[in-house]
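Reviewers of the previous submission asked for a worked example of the structure-prediction workflow described in the proposal, so we include one complete record here. The input consisted solely of the amino acid sequence. No template or homolog information was supplied to the procedure at any stage.
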Amino acid sequence: MSGSPPGKILANTHFELDNEGTLETIFQSIEILSKEKGIDPQIVLDAVKDAMLIAARKHYRSTEDYVADMDPKTGAIKLYAVKKVVEAVEDPSHEMTLAEARRIDSTAEVGGEVRIPKNTDALGRISAQTAKQVIFQKVREAERETVFNEYSGRTGELVNCTIKRVEGPDYILDLGKTEAKLPKKEQSRLEGYSVGDRVRCIIKLVDKSSKGPGVLVSRAAPELVMRLFEQEVPEIYDGTVAIRGCAREAGERTKIAVQSRDRDVDSVGACVGMKGMRVQSIIRELRGEKIDIIEYSEDSVVFATHALSPAKVSRITVIDPLEKHMEVIVDDSQLSLAIGKKGQNVRLAAKLLGWKIDIKSEEEKRQEVESQMAALVAPGAPVSVLIDYGMAEEMAVKLLENGVATIEKLGAMTPEELEVLPGIGPESVEGIQTAVVAYYSQFEDPASENAVSETAGSENTEQATAETTFETASEPAPADDDLYNPESGEERFEPGSEAAEAVSEEESESTEQFGTIVDAGSPHKQTDMAVPESTPEKGSGE
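From that input alone, the workflow returned the following structure tokens.
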């Protein structure tokens, strides 16, 4: 809370309480101090009374119990020493006889307490200065408590401040009722201020135990960008568009993820604004800091693709969903863009997603796969690799214990040799062999398989050709009397000629009169006959 410090208000106040003007000055100072600090006047009154007690003990150098009273109307302060009334005094500093007590208070009784007035005129300036320090300390404690109660619930809130003074690399800001501190680590590298400048900050921390300003503000927090978007974008303010995350490196770049709750509202377009007016206003407030507005997705792979923009992602593989670890493959030309300047793009994307992201180019991934394949086929591949091919982990341990450390050595062993190994047994041999076969099957040459397939296909083709030839050869040759003999007197006509058509008409008329005549002796003309369906024999398998 701004205003004059307690020491300045009480600078001309003396504790020579025999003067009515001085009493009035003290009381007025208390009222002014209470109003400026925004604390309860009773707290200040209690602080003054405590200061009087400390000053009295220091002046009288006594262990007596003291109490101080102040009249809130007149401001008069009275100091008393409190003693207990007893029959026999054992501790003169805290006890007194009934007779002595009756001289001070006629109503005193044994077991009660008596207040003995003390002369405050004897309190010197040293004691008064001590009292002022106590008042100052008490007021500061009350002020911190008031500030904490007012601002502790406002963490993350955007506030308007004024630069009040500069303390080294830090700025002290005026919040109106109190002061706030803007430390170096909470400043953007693009920004610099002078006394009197107005800035907007985020309340980051409120600490009542701090000796300096109890409110810590920030210009580097991601919440600053989020609050600015809430002010500039009406759709965010009314809840149509929600901010789902924000990652920031102050003065460099910010990535903010947004999601629309209305299918008719484009979340990214709403934040950008017409011709970029909305986002440009925020960029000016942040002194030119770059801002990427990203469409949020529940699918981590899709969200990662958006978060790594402007780079184009080829594919993403989730390595471990529990540990939130993924691998991103990009084209060789996109690798530097995906990583960003000093790793900034991928670093911000990882913060936004909350995932660990490994970025590799297509060439790097190809080399990695080739090296892994080479390691698998190289002599001495460990038997532990077979766990990925179905072999139990306990079997891998047993093989290692029996000196079988490589797949090459394991593949050279016979089933009988495996069975006699301790801890293996016949029941485990089959599982081990299956894993070995599955392991080596991945290295089979597909070209050889195609060659075998082509060979089989050619054999089938030859067989089909032979069958066709056989069937063709088995057809009966046409009878000699069916062949045309030029020397015979038989007339033959070209198909489609007028003579041929006349003969055809004569044959059709004969057919209508006498029906179709079938030559039973001609084999090739039997096809025109209706063949009755044969009844299948029993047991032939219908």
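The chain has a mean pLDDT of 77. We consider this example representative of the routine output the project will generate in years two and three.
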